[in-house]
Design goal:
The longest helix is centred in the C-terminal third of the chain and has 19 residues, at about 300-320. The protein has twelve helices and twelve strands. It has helices at about 10-20, 55-65, 85-90, 100-115, 120-125, 155-165, 180, 190-195, 215-220, 240-250, 280-285, 300-320; strands spanning about 1-5, 25-30, 45-50, 70-75, 90-95, 145-150, 170, 185, 200, 225-230, 250-255, 290. The protein folds into two domains: about 1-100 and about 300-325, NAD(P)-binding Rossmann-like Domain (Rossmann fold, 3-Layer(aba) Sandwich); about 100-290, Rossmann fold (3-Layer(aba) Sandwich), CATH 3.40.50. The chain is of the alpha/beta class and about 325 residues long. A seven-stranded parallel sheet has the order 8-7-6-9-10-11-12, with helices on both faces. A five-stranded parallel sheet has the order 2-1-3-4-5, with helices on both faces. The structure holds nicotinamide-adenine-dinucleotide. Nicotinamide-adenine-dinucleotide binds near residues 76, 233 and 296.
Length: about 325
């Protein structure tokens, strides 16, 4: 099939080409998919998209006019897709429900350790011949209480790692997962999780019900100096409310791999440009804020799995075997 691969980077090209055993015609396109760029899909039956592509009703209508019948997401989340519009137009939507839960869980742990022991600041100091320790005081993770919001595939992988550190793990999720309790975690109400956790890590999807889950009200219920980690989706956090909480010390540490306005920033080298996002700029001024640019998924194992499942979805669609696809149903 002819596949227009939007938001493609050199690593997408490498892994998708390697996984393309079936010989699909892959057109690698650097731009994000949006109303202005949808025309690039002309003549393709498949649009292959990523997290920051805009796939609303207008874009889907254009894609449909250009002949696109399959939207092959090379990510797990589908919060950027208007599923009703896709269903109405008869465009099948497929995704990669699981690639490497370890990649994201381990990155959340990297943020925790980096923030706690300030390794990013220590790295710079040592290079300046400065071996002073002021400002680098950390705490033992052993014995601390970790709150895990969302115990799906990534949340459970994270629970297991934190149990290995000797932490007590509290979870909240509308559906309990036996794998979390088997790993030694305990389910509590969200309010109890806010109240008791030293570190809170978000592993739930972005839904209308989880948008700004971390807001002024929930922050108020948390322990003073709490560490917040978000490797899920930026809009789970009301960034302005967290900035206020960082200013008062209510939030002691913030580790982000995602940001609610990341579409205009992440995945690009903007180093020659003036940063226009004042909220993001304010975040960067805090010593105890560590931000990475949506790289939690970025491991060799995850990229191989993403390519394999994406090509598998396209193969199954081409063969008319919709039951073999990882479809997103609205
Ligand atoms: P999953 O579907 O296996 O698990 C999500 C869990 O969240 C489910 O158990 C669900 O019941 C729970 N949930 C839903 N609403 C909730 C709520 N209000 N409170 C608490 N829990 C709730 O998903 P997963 O594979 O574990 O991925 C989790 C999220 O990680 C994805 O939605 C995605 O946004 C994010 N992610 C980020 C990256 C990255 O590179 N940063 C990569 C992959 C996934």
């Amino acid at each position: 099939m002819k596949v227009a691969v939007f938001s493609s980077k050199p690593y997408d090209q490498t892994y998708l080409t390697r996984g393309n055993q079936s010989g699909h015609e892959l057109t690698f396109l650097e731009p994000h998919l949006n109303a202005q760029t949808a025309a690039l899909a002309q003549g393709h039956e498949v649009a292959c998209c990523f997290v920051n592509d805009t796939i609303d009703a207008e874009v889907l209508t254009r894609l449909h006019e250009y002949g696109v019948r399959l939207l092959a997401l090379r990510c797990a989340g589908f919060n950027n897709v208007d599923l009703e519009a896709a269903a109405h137009l008869g465009i099948v939507v497929a995704r990669v429900p699981e690639y490497s839960p370890f990649a994201v869980a381990e990155h959340a742990v990297a943020l925790i350790l980096g923030l706690n022991r300030q390794t990013h600041r220590a790295f710079n100091r040592v290079r300046e011949n400065d071996y002073s320790l002021h400002g680098l005081l950390g705490f033992d993770l052993h014995g601390k209480t970790i709150g895990v919001v969302g115990t799906g595939k990534i949340g459970v992988a994270f629970v297991r790692i934190m149990r290995g550190f000797g932490c007590q793990v509290l979870c909240s999720d509308p559906y309990t997962n036996p794998a979390a309790t088997e790993a030694g975690a305990q389910y509590v109400s969200t309010e109890e999780l806010w109240r008791r956790s030293d570190i809170i890590s978000l592993h739930c999807p972005l839904l209308p019900s989880t948008r700004h889950l971390i807001n002024a009200e929930s922050l108020q219920q948390m322990r003073d100096g709490v560490m917040l980690i978000n490797t899920s989706r930026g809009a789970l956090i009301d960034t302005r409310a967290v900035i206020d909480a960082l200013k008062t010390g209510k939030v002691g540490y913030l580790g982000l791999d995602v940001y609610e306005e990341e579409a205009d920033l992440f995945f690009e080298d903007n180093s020659d440009d003036i940063l226009q996002d004042d909220v993001f700029a304010r975040l960067l001024t805090f010593k105890h804020v560590l931000i990475t640019g949506h790289q939690a998924f970025f491991t060799e194992e995850a990229l191989s799995a993403i390519a394999e499942v994406t090509i598998g979805n396209i193969d199954a669609f081409a063969a008319g075997q919709l039951e073999k696809m990882h479809r997103v149903i609205s």
